[in-house]
Please model this.
Amino acid sequence: AAAKLDLNLIQVCPTGYEVSQEVFEYTKKHSAGDISITNNIEEGMKNADIILCDGWPVKNAESSEFNKFLPYQIALEKLKLANDDCILNPCPPFTRGHEVTDKVIKSDCFIGYKAKENLLHMQKAILSSLQK
Model:
């Protein structure tokens, strides 16, 4: 999407979870926006307008892989690095207390539930247009 819409995009993730070099190079080549990858969440959150987070690949809080992702959890303190009017839309399924904290879900910047409701209406419109 960043390549087609000329968005500024920063992928933030633990080392080893970055998009492939092929996808990264394609996006940089085809976007007028700034495209980058960082393993530093503070750097990635700084001045963000929109924050999208994906579900973690692990749900076991006792695993070493879970601990690798924990510094990337979206919490209110980290949201202070983003723009004051930023929005947060986690990709479901997300786990409260894992990808995002409970306080973030209750904050004004969280649009997760409303965004999914709007997605449902968009999908119904697509299905309706395919019936014609």
User: Anything to note?
Assistant: The first strand starts at residue 9 and ends at 12. The two ends are 28 Å apart (CA to CA). Helices lie at 2-5, 21-30, 41-45, 64-69, 76-79, 102-105, 112-130. Residues 112-130 form the longest helix (19 residues).
